[in-house]
Amino acid sequence: MAPRAYVSLVIDSPIERVWAAMIDMQRYPEWNPFVIRVDGVGDDPRAGQAMVLHVRWGNGKVIQSSEEISRIEPPSAHGDGVVRGLLEYAFRGPLHRLNLVRGSRVQRVERLDDARTRYESEEVFSGWMAWGVPLAQVQDGFERHARALAERVRS
Q1: How many domains are contained in the chain?
Q2: Strand 35-39 vs strand 62-77: parallel, antiparallel, or unpaired?
Q3: Fewer CB in 10 Å around end: N or C, the chain?
Q4: CATH at residue 17
Q5: Rounded Cα distance, 117 and 75, in Å
Q6: How far apart are CA 87 and CA 45, in angstroms?
């Protein structure tokens, strides 16, 4: 099985507030303990946009990761009537170019009702060196990110 990090959390806030906080990457330094800064994305993130994530591991070490937004789908009703949104960005660093490590983080939101949203974040890693991804640190970061997002939109 491919290395995978995943988190799912029900957030007590409307989907519109959760989505707004997710895509307001310029404000991540105010609340996000995992992705502490994003360079290259302004007020209007869009597919094809390159960005550099400044990621803080649980041990305090900060690394930079080159990424590219591959999909951004604001919340809307789908064929089943459920309102969902999606933000996906793919790793584009040197290890990607050499096909050593590939990964794409998908963040999904789904309206449960007017006051609750399901947030999910997942990344599956592949490539010759995917086994070397610090999976426990990525998982920890996803969990810290999700909890902080929930706190941000509740305040």
Answers
A1: 1
A2: unpaired
A3: N
A4: 3.30.530.20
A5: 11
A6: 10
81, with CB counted inside 10 A (0-12, 13-18, 19+), is exposed
Q: Two tokens at 37?
A: 């800064």
Residue 1 in this model has a pLDDT that exceeds 90: no
DSSP letter assigned to residue 78: -
Residue-wise pLDDT tens digits, 116-142: 999 999 999 999 999 999 999 999 999
- Beta carbons of 22 and 87 less than 8 angstroms apart: yes
State pTM to two decimals: 0.94
What is the SS3 assignment for 134?
coil
136: CB partners within 8 A, 6+ apart: none
Q: For residues 37 and 55, is the Cβ–Cβ distance under 8 A?
A: no
Closest CA to 67 of 100, 40, 32, 31: 40
Tokens encoding 93: 């660093």
Q: Which residue has the tokens 């305090």?
A: 60
Of the chain, the percentage scoring pLDDT greater than 70 comes to: 99
Q: How far is CA 90 from CA 17, 51, 102, 107, 151, in A?
A: 24, 10, 8, 12, 26
Q: Which residue has the tokens 């947030």?
A: 119
How is residue 76 written in tokens?
């809307």
